[in-house]
Amino acid sequence: MQAAASPLQNFSTRASWAGGNLVHQIISFRSTAAENEQLRQRLAQTELELKNAHQSVQENERLKALLGFKEQTEYAQVAARVIARDSSIWFNTITIDRGTSSGVQLNMPVVTGGGIVGRIIAVSPWTAQVMMITDEKAAAGAIVGQIGDSGALGSVRGLGESDLIEMRYVSGLQKVEVGNYILTTGQDGIYPPGLNVGEVVQVKPGTATQAHQILIKPGANLDRLEEVLVLLYHAPQRPAPEQTLPNVDKAKK
Asked: Do 128 and 104 touch, CB atoms closer than 8 A?
């Protein structure tokens, strides 16, 4: 009987062991799955914290640059945040959260610590629209190098879909090189003189009768605008030319 029952007992023992092992594996699998889910959640939380920390560092750097510009400029300014951006290929504009209630008016220049952004083209009491310098309809008087040290005068304008801007009317006799910086001259009646426009990245030399073809990378990071400054600036009015009155005595003679 024992000999006859031995195979059955052996099978029963193996089945019991296999069943117990299967239950243990199921429990272990569930525990591992739960642990993996916790690890995934912790990893996602860590990545979010790192992203927020990186954004905070970037924001801190931008604000430091704006603060440095505010300390260097003599013009009153209003800090504003970009709240919308036009994605149309026909327009290159942004909307900021400051308007006439903050002193913002048409044609006031908008800048960052890196350079000019554009000018105000529409205002409401609490918002304003800015045409960026990369727009085809945007322009500014500019000079290669410092005012008074250079004769390379011209104007810059946007190229529409390109993130570069073009400088025109610079005489081919003037020396212009890649790496030169471009400043505003104030002759356009929008931007005060001495603001950074950008850096020359490409020059096709001109001649005595043909101007240089110059491409500039804007100094302001126009693709990632978050905070800007509106300069409460209006170009000084130029005095009207004096009119010479006729000499009465000579007229009588």
From this structure: yes
The SS3 of residue 236 is coil
pTM of structure: 0.68
Question: Which of the following CATH numbers is that of domain 73-231: 3.40.50.1970, 2.40.10.340, 3.40.228.10, 2.30.30.30?
Answer: 2.40.10.340
Query: In which residue are the tokens 């978050």 written?
Result: 226
User: Mean pLDDT lowest for which of 77-86, 154-163, 175-184, 205-214?
Assistant: 154-163
Spatial separation of the C-alpha atoms in residues 167 and 151, rounded to whole Å: 14
166, two tokens? 């073009």
Cβ distance 55 to 227 under 8 Å?
A: no
Residue appearing with tokens 């990369």: 134
SS3 84: strand
Comparing CA positions, the residue from 157, 158, 159, 154 lying closest to residue 142 is 154
Query: What is residue 171's three-state secondary structure?
Result: coil
Q: Rg of the Cα trace of the chain?
A: 34
Per-residue pLDDT tens digits for 78-134: 999 999 988 665 668 999 999 999 999 999 999 998 999 999 999 999 999 999 999
